[in-house]
Fold this sequence. Notes:
- The chain is an alpha+beta fold.
- It has 2 domains: about 1-55 and about 145-290, no CATH class; about 85-145 and about 295-355, FAD/NAD(P)-binding domain (3-Layer(bba) Sandwich).
- The protein contains 11 helices and 12 strands.
- The strands form 4 sheets. Strands 8-9-10-7-11 form a 5-stranded antiparallel β-sheet. It has a 3-stranded antiparallel β-sheet with strand order 3-4-5, with no helix packed on it. Strands 1-2 form a two-stranded antiparallel sheet.
Amino acid sequence: LLGQILDLWFESEPLKATLATDAVIGAMASPHTPGSGYVLLHHVMGELEGRRGAWGYVAGGMGALSQAIAQAATARGAHIFAEKAVCHVLLGRDGEAQGVALQDGTEVRSKLVLSNASPQITFLELIPQEQLPKDFVQRIQQVDTRSPVTKINVAVDRLPSFLAAPNARDGQPLPHHQCSIHLNCEDTQLLHQAFTEAAHGHPSSRPMIELCIPSTLDPGLAPPGCHVVSLFTQYTPSMLAGGRSWDEQARNAYADTVFDCIEDYAPGFKASVIGRDILTPPDLERIFGLPGGNIFHGGMSLDQLYFARPAPSYSGYRSPIPGLYLCGSGAHPGGGVMGAAGRNAAQVAIKDFRHL
Length: 356
């Protein structure tokens, strides 16, 4: 249990609760949920430029990271087809992968196919079910993809000024503006209550909010004096109580709750908002192909990690389809901006390619 781990090391409840946010981030779980300690480990195990556990902003936004990978690939002869949806994986007589078919009818032939789509899309939508072992299909169908995350992107015309550390008169960013700001986490019990509400189908009345202002470090993201604020919030259920879906009213009501909370910490925040984009779990699934809106392609619970990710006997990136490899967040070791699954899968594919 995360609570037990934090109790061993810390006395301050606000510090423990703030650290606990990284143990439940992206997870429909509470700090009291068994196994939550691993998710915290997963978020602090790496390093950035020699600093262990550090995270960083990508200059130009997260899309710039994808562009950097794309440029490195094309420099080595790769061809990238954007906005070309894959319809299904092409299979040979013996059930081996032979390429992919696009929705426009184009067929791209190849000896190997690597998919960084979720296991659900890869195996339940792109492959005929009769080509896969029944127990494997059942396992993929049973993966827990519940997600509590609603992402809100905000444009503001001035920097938030927090009661705990008011802005300087010149309005220039202060050190706390340039890192991750965690709100509504003064107490671990607050996080548990927020989880409990969502578990019963109700968006949290006092949501956990992780607030970043990337434009303080990357001014090109917003016009002079203005900023973009990224809100990673939870908990919100995929389906609301009573089977209600997320309509415009429900989405705006939840966003208003989040903004009311921020207003308590930084009076004037609501008046500074000039635009907002609300992405609930169904929106994240529809737009980005995240099953259930889950940023990790599936919960990072102990029963869905290591040798069991995405399914027992298939954690080594190979799949039941010869020549088809899984290389996204649904593969070992799971989500996070680290590229480990892709790198590992590539090494396995290269090893196999030499024998074709």
